[in-house]
Amino acid sequence: MASDPRLQSDPSPDGGLEARLASVRSGISDAARAAGRSADELTLVVVTKFHPASLVRELAALGVTDVGENRHQEAQAKAAELADLALTWHFVGQLQSKKARQVRRYAHVVQSLDRDSVVDAFAPTESEPEPPVIDGFVQVNLTDDPGRGGVQPDDVDAMVERVLATGTIRLRGVMAVAPLDEEPRPAFARLRGISERVRSIEPAATDISAGMSGDYADAVLEGATHLRIGTAITGKRPVAP
Ligand SMILES: *Cc1c(COP(=O)(O)O)cnc(C)c1O
Q: Which CATH superfamily includes the segment(s) 5-234?
C-alpha cells in the first residue's frame, strides 16, 4: 500500500518497512525452494517487541497476520489498541505463572511453555472452570545454559505430557532459539529430532517454531513451520523503555 503516507516517511536507507518485509518474504521463498518445501507451509510471525502499536498496524496493512511479543504488559496494551485488526498474537517471551491467565485473554498462541508452574496455570480452576483453549509450543533449550529459557531435551516428553494434561492447551509443537556459540543448523537439526519424538506422543503437534532474522534459512532447511522474525523486518529495535 504505497499510497499510505505513513509508509513513505521511513528515511532508512534500506527502503523502509515495506521493502524490508518484501525482502524477508522473498528470502523465505528462496529458503523454501532450497529445502524443497512450499512457502505455504511456513508461517511468518513478525516479532514487534519494543515497537509501537502504530508499526504493528502498518505491518497489518502490508498483509502481516501473525505478530509476536515477549513482554506481557506491552503485548496486552498493543493487542487492546489493535483489537480492530484480525491479528494472531503469539507470546514468545518468558512467562510468569501469575500472568498466564491474563496472557490467555489476548494471545492466541503461547510459544514459551517451559516451566511446570506456567503450564499448570493454564489448567481450569474453581473460578474459571472452562477457560478458553490456547495454542501452545513447548520451548526447548538447545544450550546447557539454564538462563536461556526452555526445557532441556531430556525433559521435553514430561513437559509434553503435562501440557496435554491441562486440557486447555492445544499443543502445536516445539519452539527454540538457536544457541549463540554454535552454528544454528545442527542445533535446529536436534530440534527436528525432538519434534519427531513429540509427535510420537501427540501426532497433532507437528509444528516447529525456529529461525529469527539471522538464521531463518537454516531453520527452514531443518523443517521449521513458524519463523519468528523481528529486526530484519522492523529495523533496529528502540531501546527498552
Ligand atoms: C526478539 C525475538 C525474536 C526476533 O529476533 P530478531 O533477531 O529480531 O529477528 C525471535 N524470537 C524470540 C523468542 C525473541 O525474543
A: Alanine racemase (3.20.20.10)
Identify the three-state secondary structure at position 7.
helix
Domain residues of the chain, as ranges? Answer: 5-234
Residue 92 in contact with ligand 1 by CB distance below 6 A: yes
Ligand 1 atom closest to the Cα of residue 47 is: 4
Q: Is the CB of 94 under 6 A from ligand 1?
A: no
Nearest CA to ligand 1 atom 14: 92
Number of the ligand 1 atom closest to the C-alpha atom of 49? 1
Report the C-alpha gap between 40 and 136 in whole angstroms. 21
Query: Which position has the higher pLDDT, 33 or 6?
Result: 33
- The runs of H, that is alpha helices, within 68-115 are 72-81, 97-106
Measured distance CA(179)–CA(197) in Å, rounded: 21
Joined grid coordinates for residue 238:
528502540
Compute the distance between CA of residue 125 and CA of residue 48 in angstroms, rounded to an integer: 32
Convert the pLDDT of each residue in 62-117 to its tens digit: 999 999 999 999 999 999 999 999 999 999 999 999 999 999 999 999 999 999 99
N- to C-terminal Cα separation, the chain: 30
